[in-house]
Every structure is written in C-alpha cells, then in structure tokens.
Amino acid sequence: MNPIKGLHHVTAVARDPQRNVDFYRNVLGQRLVKRTVNFDSPDTYHFYFADATGSPGSLLTFFAWPNMRRGVRGNGETNAVAYNVPVGSLDFWQERLKQKGITPASIESRFGQSVLAFTDPDGMGVELVEAQHLPAIQHWEEGPIPQAYALSGLHSITLWLDEVEPTSALLLQGMGYQFSGAEVNRHRFKSDLSELGHIVDLVHRPGKMQAGFGAGSIHHVAFRASTDEEQLEYRSALSSAGFRVSPVMDRSYFHSIYFREQGGVLFEIATDTPGFLIDETKEGLGETLKLPEWFEMNRAEIEASLQLLTLNPLEKVSKNDIAS
Ligand code: ZN
C-alpha cells in the first residue's frame, strides 16, 4: 500500500460565518475556494479556505454552527493546525494579528523552526511555522498578503493524547509515517512523500483533562489518498486492523472515509480528486453558494435558512507597509 502523502484538509467549527470568513480570508489571506453547506445539516454553511485553487494540503474547512457553545481544548482532540510561512515573516504576522485584535503567544522554537501560536476568533489553535523549504502551492495573487509573507499550505497538526503509543503505531504501521524525533512530550511523525502538511505531532499529556467539543474545536483531520483505489485499500486494511471505518462518502470535491483512532481523534482519508474546479471556474471559486445536485431542488429553502454572507473588500498589504 502507498504511504499517506500528508494532510488533505482539517475541519473545524466556527460560530459566526461572517466573522470566520473575515478572519481567514481578509486577515490570514486564505482564499474562500468553496461556499457550500454541511451535507448532513444543509441549513448551515461549510466553508473551504485554501490556496488559489484548493490544492489538497492547503485546505482548512469550517462548519459554521451559530448556536454552538464554545469548545474546551483538551486530550482526545486535534489541538492545533499549523501553516508554513516564509522564513523571516513572523514579525510581520505578530504585528498584523495585533492590529486585528488577536494577541499571539511569544515566538517559540520547535524542532529548529520558529513558531507563532495564536487562537482564532472562536478559540481554535492556529500556528505559523517558518519553513526553510516552502511547499509548492498556488499563491492567491488577488489576496491581501504578498507572497513574501503569505501562508503556504498546511505544515502540521498537533494531537493532544492520554497515550501516544496506539496513535503512533497507527501512523507508523498503518499509514506509512516515520518517527522523526521528540522534544519534551511532543513526538513528531513525518511523511517523506510531500512537504505539504506532512507532519503529525503527538503531545503526550497523561491524565490531563479531556477536550469538550464545541465552537473552536477541530472536528476531524483528513489525510490524502491519491485515488479511489488507494482509498479502498486503506479502507480494507484499516477494517482488518480493527477500526470501524465508514463507507465511502461523496463529498462532491473529494471522496471520504472516516474512522476514530484510538486516542479519540476522528481521522478521514480523502481523495485528491475530483477537486474544487468541478463546478466553478478558477476565477469564480467561492463566489456563490454551491450545492450538491441532490440538494438543488431545495435551493430556495436552503438559501433562506442561511445567514447573508458578504465578501468584504480585501485591504492589500503592500511591501512598503512592512519595510518600516
Ligand atoms: Zn473532512
């Protein structure tokens, strides 16, 4: 079986759809590449933020659930999602986040890389990591952030766990990851096949509080399968290893299987195909509400149940704004 290439997407929960779009699109400079609904709850939005074209490995997606109470961060959950940024850009990000009302933590060093951690407006953990080798993504030229400072796809996820061994065994033996080192209680696993979203960190926190799911929680993390065949091989191998794996689900832009790993975190394996350009042009991505065909007959009702959403004007950061 082919090893997993890295992360496909990470999905989290936000409360206010407008605030969510304003933060990830206008502040962090991620393109809203798809505006759709939660297929299991079509009266709520599902947003996909990514590079210019929705490349696997650059995707952070949100269910916008306005009535959700705030989650509590703890064990048994993905605690943070990290993006690559260019070396030397964290001073810019520190300043920009402060200007936008977010107070980041101090810059720390992790496995030789500088990391800036902060929480998004819903309390979700986000990190920016200075990467020597930026993975190739499609920079969003029309976005607010010049490429010299722009987020460049996912770097890693961090899981908080009571026990590290069962999850590490799954990564090593079941998914083709390699152990790449430990710092204090953080154990790092890497996929060699890609530089995009190729790191999983397991943080060992025995006996610490369990997470309480809610707004600001990461709902699940999705890993990449290149093809439907590869996904089916994983489905069968994981089932044989004792995991309860869902049937293949059609998510329009990819196909998905889900299972809960032993640490309690919901994992998904998603296909690279068909991708985000199947129902919109590259220029028009994210501009209008897209629905799978089985919901089209209810479009008027669905649109009426959703909050109005505005794509607010992008204030472009110029290099001159930063030079001083
Ligand atoms: Zn997913």
Layout of secondary structure:
Layout: E1 7-14, H1 17-27, E2 31-38, E3 41-50, E4 59-64, E5 77-86, H2 90-99, E6 108-110, E7 113-119, E8 125-131, E9 154-161, H3 165-174, E10 178-183, E11 186-190, E12 199-204, E13 218-225, H4 228-240, E14 249-250, E15 254-260, E16 266-274, H5 293-296, H6 299-305, H7 319-323
Parallel strand pairs: 1-4, 5-8, 9-12, 13-16
Antiparallel strand pairs: 1-13, 2-3, 3-4, 5-9, 6-7, 7-8, 10-11, 11-12, 14-15, 15-16
Overview of this structure, please?
- The strands form two sheets. An eight-stranded mixed beta sheet has the order 2-3-4-1-13-16-15-14. It has an eight-stranded mixed beta sheet with strand order 6-7-8-5-9-12-11-10, covered by helices on one side.
- Strand 7 and strand 8 form a beta hairpin.
- The chain has seven helices and 16 strands.
- By secondary structure, the protein is an alpha+beta fold.
- It has helices spanning 17-27, 90-99, 165-174, 228-240, 293-296, 299-305, 319-323, and strands spanning 7-14, 31-38, 41-50, 59-64, 77-86, 108-110, 113-119, 125-131, 154-161, 178-183, 186-190, 199-204, 218-225, 249-250, 254-260, 266-274.
- The protein is globular and about 45 Å long.
- The longest helix is centred in the last third of the chain and has 13 residues, at 228-240.
- The structure holds zinc ion.
